[in-house]
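TA notes, week 10

Several of you asked for a full example with nothing omitted. So below is the full record: structure tokens for the whole chain, then the designed sequence directly under it. When grading your own attempts, check the secondary structure regions first.
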């Protein structure tokens, strides 16, 4: 009987941990969605282009325009391959 109780307790505790993780993930997703909705309402663009430093590569993708270090092969924001660093 002890083995059955041990298995039950292990699965019960594991289920509680999984439920807590799912609830935390749900709360984070709701807060993130609310934040995005709020920034949309006030007109703030969270993905506004960053001012490029001297020698920085600017992402060519429209809507991104992120400044990247000169040695970068891919955009740090969207992951697009940068024009000056094409792979052979």
């Amino acid at each position: 009987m002890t083995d059955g109780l041990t298995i039950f307790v292990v699965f019960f505790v594991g289920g509680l941990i999984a439920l807590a993780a799912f609830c935390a993930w749900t709360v984070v997703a709701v807060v993130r969605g609310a934040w995005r909705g709020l920034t949309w309402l006030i007109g703030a663009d969270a993905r506004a282009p960053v001012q490029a430093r001297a020698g920085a590569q600017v992402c060519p993708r429209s809507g991104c325009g992120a400044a990247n270090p000169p040695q970068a092969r891919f955009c740090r924001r969207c992951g697009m391959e940068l024009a000056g660093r094409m792979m052979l």
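Residues 1-46 form one domain. Use that as a sanity check on your answer.
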